Predict the structure.
Amino acid sequence: MIDADPASNGHLVRLRDVHKVYHRDKIEIPVLAGINLDVKQGEFLALMGPSGSGKSTLLNLIAGIDRPTQGEVRVAGESLGELGSSKLAAWRARHVGFIFQLYNLIPVLTAYQNAELPLLLTRLSAAERRKRVLLALGLVGLEDRAGHFPRQLSGGEEQRVAIARAFVADPTLLVADEPTGDLDAKNAEEILVLLQRLHREMGKTIIMVTHDPHAAERADHTVHLDKGVLKT
């Protein structure tokens, strides 16, 4: 883990006047308009808003998956719009852990192998990778399911494997896009408790997109997007 950019007053994420416009043929489709947002290191932020409000787009900009049309996205001391594609990919691998609504596990890999994937981009030895993977699976309560394939796991277990994969490389930032959206109430509650543990016990900075007010209650702070405009 790194410290927040010293020039950012303890904020790990800073967005200034961020706009995002997509183009379909000659038609401009504005998605985000003038976003200003600060997220402190160690904060758990919930990002809410109706469908189509730009929540996932904003999350993708913060995670370095997409680039702003205008404005600055600065995360972990880097202005992401200034990085070339290869440097941005390397930055993502080092700093961001992703948690998706639909898990995105690889069906032909075991829980262990899925969780290990981010570590294959590092220079860790096989022994060190094994230590980290088993620790991560243990933290999500699935060490005994390490040899199981996704089809042999429940939805809640699949999402816990996905969370283990997201933090196994000790990223600076965890981003979660509707992490409980495909789960029943019991499994959703377990995932929220797990995210709170990562935040409180491991000091992880988490930005979570959700439409569920109950999920948002777990965060330190909630902001709302409406038609591409941020409302705190």
In short: Residues 1-7 have pLDDT under 50 and may be disordered. Helices lie at 55-62, 85-95, 111-116, 126-139, 155-167, 185-202, 213-216.
